Amino acid sequence: RDFDPVTAADRAAERIIRKAITGRYPEHGIVGEEFAQLAGAGRFNWVIDPIDGTRAFITGTPLWGTLIGLLDGGKPSLGLMNQPFTGERFWGAGGTAHSRTRDGTVQRLETRACAGLADAVLTTTHPDLFAMPAELAAFLQLKAAARMTRYGGDCYAYCLLAAGFIDLIVEAGLKTY
């Protein structure tokens, strides 16, 4: 239950990303999953999760990705999810979201209209994430009301939400990165 896999790949990827950021933007701060926060001198802070969905990564399931975000004065200005296995990239900035496939096709993403919870496709990474009884009870109530519920997805589920394939994601215990 307390298994929290951190791979050498997690740490190596974050080191590479941090080096690229500090090389280009030495005054920017960094908040990452694997290493201590680096305070910046300005208003910009990068948020990094080098492998979101480490369990998916170590089991060969392509639902993991590299997450990189940029905060400007504490407000999100850019978000990116890169999935190197499938060659997909998803990003949002300035109120719009896009995706790019391995062949270079770029498309604008939009969530889909959903009339109500009875029509919604609900996802969560796993019901075990709802550690508090009240959290689990609330999730099960939503699950009972939704049209369909799927488990798994990690960061990829949020991309599916942005692309209009699912309607609702419920998670518990998420951290900044």
Topology (elements, then pairings):
Elements: H1 8-24, E1 29-32, E2 44-52, H2 54-58, E3 65-72, E4 75-83, E5 88-93, E6 96-100, E7 106-109, E8 121-124, H3 133-145, E9 148-151, H4 154-162, E10 168-169
Parallel strand pairs: 1-2, 8-9, 8-10
Antiparallel strand pairs: 2-3, 3-4, 4-5, 5-6, 6-7
Task: Supply database-style keywords.
4 helices; alpha/beta; 10 strands; seven-stranded mixed beta sheet
Query: Which bin fits the share of residues in helices?
Result: 10-25%
Secondary structure category: alpha/beta
Please state the overall shape, judged from the principal axes of the Cα atoms. Answer: globular
Strand order of the largest sheet: 1-2-3-4-5-6-7
Q: How would you characterize the overall build of this protein?
A:
By secondary structure, this protein is α/β, with parallel strands linked by helices. 25% of the residues lie in helices and 31% in strands. It has helices at 8-24, 54-58, 133-145, 154-162; strands at residues 29-32, 44-52, 65-72, 75-83, 88-93, 96-100, 106-109, 121-124, 148-151, 168-169. The mean pLDDT is 93. The strands form two sheets. A seven-stranded mixed β-sheet has the order 1-2-3-4-5-6-7. It has a three-stranded parallel β-sheet with strand order 9-8-10, covered by helices on one side.
Quick rundown:
The protein is of the alpha/beta class.
